[in-house]
Design brief:
Radius of gyration: 23 Å
Shape: elongated
Oligomer: single chain
Helix content: 25-40%
Largest sheet: 6 strands, antiparallel
Mean pLDDT: 87
Number of domains: 1
């Protein structure tokens, strides 16, 4: 297992990057503690199973062959599934154009009513960023790229288990940030509508001699900043996990997912609204695999066309 790897990047400075890095480091410390506990538990389980292995007449070399066979099978089945997952069943670009047209039409109809309420759309992100951490080999590194013109980014995370009981995980946050100068103090309501186009692909086939398991979690989230960072709000979009996910579990994730957020704000000072996704993959033992992919091919990405806001006293 490779050493723990981490990264925090942004295309532009965050309004309070020191605070964000502190949160990120605290989250990472929890992962480190979990990894240490899991490694100890895995070694103990292997120690417990070895007498059973010897009693059955098998040698460790025989178990290694079985693990290799399971790993090869998981690769084969996941590769076959990939061919069915890369393209959605409908014309998603048409859906996006229709959604954006309706939003712009609605924006024209909104008449600023003045005090005590205001509302509007934020069409373009000011900057984007990401942070990621993982425990695995280089091919399992979570990745993301940004296309500001298309208001989209392309995240991907995956995890491959190793050995008898070793666990691997991969976690990535990617986001766009939108800025707003409130015309007045008041209660700010934020509504975001990210489109997600991608797929999951998982495999685990647990046997008595190992501990195969796979899991994938996908969230959208929103947080906001004015003078200080507000708490982040998550929405669970997809979750699957188990020790019997074979010959493979796979499917597309295509849809528009709304998030709402609330904050008290003062007048004139800039509010930064971040809209993002969190991808988390976990896999244990050789053959255990988990993947969340919004990157492979032109049809897979996260699209955030706008943010709608409403302010009142």
């Amino acid at each position: 297992m490779a050493r723990l790897m981490t990264e925090f990047k942004s295309t532009k400075p965050n309004p309070d990057e020191k605070h964000l890095k502190a949160l990120w480091q605290a989250e990472l410390n929890c992962f480190k503690n979990s990894l240490a506990a899991e490694k100890e538990a895995a070694q103990q389980k292997k120690t417990n199973v070895l007498p059973v292995v010897k009693g059955s007449g098998l040698k460790e070399a025989d178990i290694t062959k079985l693990l290799t066979k399971g790993k090869t099978l998981s690769k084969k089945t996941q590769k076959a599934a990939e061919r069915l997952l890369t393209k959605p069943a409908v014309n998603i670009n048409l859906l996006h154009r229709q959604d954006l047209k309706l939003a712009k039409d609605n924006a024209k109809l909104i008449n600023p009513r003045g005090n005590p309420s205001w509302s509007g759309y934020i069409w373009n992100p000011s900057y984007g960023g990401w942070w990621k951490n993982w425990n695995g080999e280089s091919e399992e590194v979570p990745v993301v790229s940004f296309n500001f013109g298309a208001k989209s980014f392309d995240p991907q995370a995956q995890a491959w288990g190793e050995g008898w009981y070793d666990g691997d995980w991969s976690k990535l946050h990617g986001y766009f940030a939108y800025t707003l100068k409130p015309p007045s103090y008041g209660h700010l309501h934020i509504y975001t509508y990210p489109w997600l186009h991608g797929y999951y692909n998982m495999y685990s086939n647990d046997e008595w001699y190992n501990s195969e398991y796979a899991r994938a979690d996908l969230y959208t989230w929103v947080d906001a900043y004015q003078h200080f960072w507000r708490a982040r709000q998550y929405r669970l979009i997809f979750r699957m996990g188990g020790d019997e996910l074979h010959p493979t579990r796979y499917g597309r994730i295509d849809g528009q997912y709304g998030n709402s957020y609330y904050a008290n704000v003062g007048a004139s000072d800039t509010v930064t609204i971040r809209v993002g996704v969190q991808l988390y993959c976990y896999a244990r033992a050789s053959g255990g695999r988990s993947k969340l992919d919004f990157r492979s091919g032109a049809a897979n990405y996260v699209h955030i066309p706008y943010v709608y806001w409403y302010l009142h006293h």
